[in-house]
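User: I've been trying to design a sequence by hand for this structure and keep getting stuck. Would you show me what you'd pick, starting by listing the structure so we're on the same page?

Assistant: Good idea, let's start from the same input. This is the structure you sent:
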């Protein structure tokens, strides 16, 4: 939300053309670029290998290590029998960029690394 709020504030500056505001970033910045583009009037976006997307798929691909280790740790500590795992995934979905993506209207150039095990 901070990135979207910043875009809206910047659009009000006299020296800024609000029809030419863009966003770009890599990894977590790529994830923030997606969120900003979905929540603000961004015209061009360049997210590079965006992080913070489709957590459950990362889990299913057995990549919940490194940057995602907290997911594994949380499930191990709070849901060892996975009885409430679906509720966990539903709650995590509120901050998952995959659900914001349909709102993006900006022209978008996305860079990805197809063998990336951190931002698949």
């Amino acid at each position: 939300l901070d990135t979207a709020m910043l875009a809206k504030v910047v659009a009000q500056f006299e020296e800024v053309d609000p029809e030419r505001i863009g966003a770009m970033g890599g990894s977590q910045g790529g994830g923030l670029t997606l969120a900003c583009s979905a929540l603000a009037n961004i015209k061009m976006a360049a997210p590079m290998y965006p992080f913070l997307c489709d957590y459950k798929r990362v889990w299913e691909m057995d990549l919940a290590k490194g940057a995602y280790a907290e997911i594994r740790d949380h499930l191990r500590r709070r849901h060892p029998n996975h009885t409430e795992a679906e509720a966990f995934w539903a709650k995590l979905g509120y901050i998952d960029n995959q659900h914001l993506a349909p709102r993006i209207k900006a022209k978008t150039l996305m860079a990805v690394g197809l063998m990336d095990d951190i931002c698949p």
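That's my pick for every position. To get oriented when you compare it with your attempt: The helical segments are 2-11, 28-39, 55-60, 69-78, 85-92. The CA atoms of residues 76 and 82 lie 9 Å apart.
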